[in-house]
Amino acid sequence: MGLAVATAALASCDQNGEKAVVVKETGATQTTEAGTPDIVYVNSDSLLANYEYFKDVRTRLQGKAEAKEKSLRSQAESFQKEVQRFQQQAANMTVQQASATEQRLMQKQQQLQALQQSSGNELMSEESEEMKKIYDQVESYLKKLSEEKGYKMVLTYQRGNSAILYSDSTRDITTEVVEGLNKEYETEKVEADKAKETPKKK
């Protein structure tokens, strides 16, 4: 799976809805009246590793990928057996029969290759859509949290690939964000389960 791309920078919103990904010069930072820093950061690696929604999506996509791979492998093995049978029987075929069989096998091989390509593209497209949903969920929560806490900017930190070289650990709100996101996700799952159990009106 290509879910490693998920550890890319997670954009967040300030109170005006403006995205803040990289800050070249912050200068002297300020704090809110309650003593809360107005610029904080989230460790994207830790967030995704502990966000239950992301873990569920990853498990589901991996399951689909494995199922498709198994199906393609089975079809490839079946095709290979057909090729072997043709090779064994070719000497007893007429020129026309051999030519027709070769043509059929070539077409089948092309179909298998096309199926493999389309399956890969389908998985990549679904993964991209799911990651967009995850980013939207995170961004929406960070916007709401920033409005509650008075954060002016939420940066993203990823070890070895970040604009933040150092920051006081008190500015790390990853744990709080993960807990909030997981709580919201759990509520959504409970509501979804209730909706499934509710009998439809005729």
Note the main attributes of this structure:
202 residues; Protein Binding, DinI Protein, Chain A; two-stranded antiparallel sheet; mainly alpha
If you average the pLDDT, what whole number results?
82
* Structural class by SSE content: mainly alpha
SSE order, one letter for each helix or strand = EEEHHHEH
- CATH A-level architecture: 2-Layer Sandwich
Low-confidence stretches: 1-33
For the sheet with most strands, the description reads: 2 strands, antiparallel
N-to-C CA distance = 43 Å
How many helices? The count is 4
Residue fraction in strands: 5-15%
CATH class: Alpha Beta
Number of domains: 1
Oligomer: single chain
* Percentage of residues assigned to helices: 55-70%
SSE blueprint and pairings:
Blueprint: E1 12-13, E2 19-20, E3 39-43, H1 44-50, H2 52-89, H3 95-149, E4 153-157, H4 174-197
Parallel strand pairs: 3-4
Antiparallel strand pairs: 1-2
Helix pairs in contact: 1-4, 2-3
Q: Your description of this structure?
A:
- With 202 residues, this protein is mainly alpha-helical.
- It has one domain: Protein Binding, DinI Protein, Chain A.
- It is 61% helix and 7% strand.
- The chain contains four helices and four strands; from the N terminus they run E-E-E-H-H-H-E-H.
- It has a two-stranded antiparallel ribbon.
- A hairpin with a 5-residue loop joins strand 1 (12-13) and strand 2 (19-20).
- It is elongated and about 90 Å long.
- The two termini are 43 Å apart.
- GO terms for molecular function: unfolded protein binding.
- Residues 69-148 form a coiled coil.
